[in-house]
Amino acid sequence: MNVSVFNGITSVIIEVIFALVPLVVFFLVAQVLLLRLPWKKVIDIIKGIFLAFIGLTLFLQGVHIGFEPAGTMMGKVLGSKDHKWVLIPIGFVLGFVATIAEPAIRILNHEVDKVSGGYIPQKVLLYTLCIGVGFSIALAMLRLLVGIPIVWLVLPGYVIALVMMQFTSPTFTSVAFDAGGVATGPMTVTFIMAVALGVGEVLPGRDPMIDSFGMIALVALAPIISVLTLGLLYAWKERRND
Fold first, then answer.
1. Vertex 181, ends 178 and 185: CA angle to 5°?
2. Which of 111, 204, 238, 239 is the most buried (most CB within 10 A)?
3. What range defines the domain where residue 18 resides?
């Protein structure tokens, strides 16, 4: 298979530009009207934005030419095996590993640890998110095998999350919904979704565009429930100590 390293990089550059330009414009307006930072600090920020542009471009290009086709081929191989139940534990492992590799997850963990003063350690939050996303991918693989409608999973999941919010502190509630957003990053969306599409292509009686639809919704829901569960454990621990 012939793979060009820079194939399609123009579209990736355009995507990154559209993602960064609003942030740059917002910073410039804030700098003129409110911040008035020294020029040395402004130059450092501009250098950081340029480095972020280069890093995001290279990262997304690598995902598109590497992880995406590799995920599709992996899904086809796994879906064609006789013992298709192995898709469920493999889905859990893939979700766990992809969450560890997600850049936005690392940033969220660092910020939460800093803002909470170490009350929510980085490793605890990271493994909580990894386990939650792993279970969501395993559930998505089960849905592919059995043909469960996506509404039967997403609707009860959000009802459970709304109930759990009533017994969890606002700190964990805010972190939970932020985690649901950052978990659906380029690693999960491109690699795990590609695996699901590959599985759906080879499973008999499955339409990859229909039966794979909803996986990202499950991935966005899983961190919410897992972090809220962590908040309930923290609250139980505090009550027991009191």
1. 135
2. 111
3. 1-72
pLDDT of 69 reads 84
pLDDT of residue 103: 81
Q: Token pair of 217, please?
A: 């919704």
Nearest-angstrom CA–CA distance, 134 and 91: 7
**Which residue is listed with tokens 């569960």?**
229
Q: What is the domain count for the chain? A: 2
Using an 8 Å Cβ cutoff, are 112 and 142 in contact? no
The structure's pTM equals 0.80
Segments of the chain scoring below 70 in pLDDT: 1-3
User: Of 35, 56, 72, which marks where a domain is finished?
Assistant: 72
Among 202, 196, 205, 74, smallest CA distance to 146 is for 205
Kindly give, in sequence order, each residue whose CB lies less than 8 Å from that of residue 157, ignoring residues fewer than 6 positions away: 218, 221, 225
